[in-house]
Amino acid sequence: MASETAIRAESLGKSYRSGGAEVVVFNNLSLQVPRNERLAVIGESGSGKSTLLHLLGGLEKPSSGKVLYGDRELESLSDHELDNFRNREIGYVWQKPSLLPEFTALENVMMPLLIRGVRHSEAARTARARLDEVGLSHRETHRPGELSGGEQQRVSLARALAGKPNVLLADEPTGSLDFRTGESIVALLTELHSLHELTSVLVTHNLSIASRCDRVLELRKGGLQTPSDVGVQVAGVKQDATRLDGGTYV
Ligand SMILES: Nc1ncnc2c1ncn2[C@@H]1O[C@H](COP(=O)(O)OP(=O)(O)O)[C@@H](O)[C@H]1O
Ligand SMILES: [Mg+2]
What we know:
Blueprint: E1 5-18, E2 21-34, E3 38-42, H1 49-56, E4 64-69, E5 72-73, H2 79-89, E6 90-93, H3 105-115, H4 120-133, H5 149-161, E7 167-171, H6 179-195, E8 199-203, H7 207-210, E9 215-220, E10 223-225, H8 230-240
Parallel strand pairs: 3-8, 3-9, 6-7, 7-8
Antiparallel strand pairs: 1-2, 1-4, 4-5, 9-10
The structure holds adenosine-5'-diphosphate and magnesium ion.
The site of adenosine-5'-diphosphate has 12 residues, from strand 1, strand 2 and helix 1.
């Protein structure tokens, strides 16, 4: 089943109207992500990485083209069906952990399950298992404000995976963290990708993450390309990672 396609984007276009002018982010972008692949998307700031992730995750609608998960086309789903689909099928991790500040770590992780109507006791049991996987069992009663940035990102990861999604979409998940904390999140992403048999699309500035993915694509001038110089850059990252002051971010 390894060759099965999990996510397919066909001739995607996305434009924004901004101050009377049209900003074309991309206009004919196609992509296939095989099941269980770990795909890194890199690219300069403003190249459209977040936009692409939002379209793949059904958080924004394309101006043209379509996104398919198997034979399900996101465009054809009603808002309610899309909400359900996202809740069950996709886990999201953002650069900023975006946890609910008034709830504990455990409650934050339970949230996607409660939203889909899972019983409280069962949601708590599942959330505890996810918190255990990210090494934070001992912090379940802590609120986000009592956790470090790295710990908050671990809780976000646990929350993203609480509902057993098939797909993980992460937008610069280490972007707010120092190098070493970022590295521990990368290690965790790797572990959880295998453990939960995920298909992962990771948008990243961090070439250390990119170097550990199955495939790296660069978003440039509205298209996805195989980066020709990534091998060299990755070698640079490995060198830099041995420095005490951290590694390389492009
Ligand atoms: N809501 C919006 N309205 C207008 N322009 C937008 C909007 N969102 C993104 N853009 C523009 O689309 C381009 C791609 O943005 P983004 O996907 O955030 O890039 P990246 O994540 O690679 O930094 C940028 O030029 C940005 O200014
Ligand atoms: Mg972005």
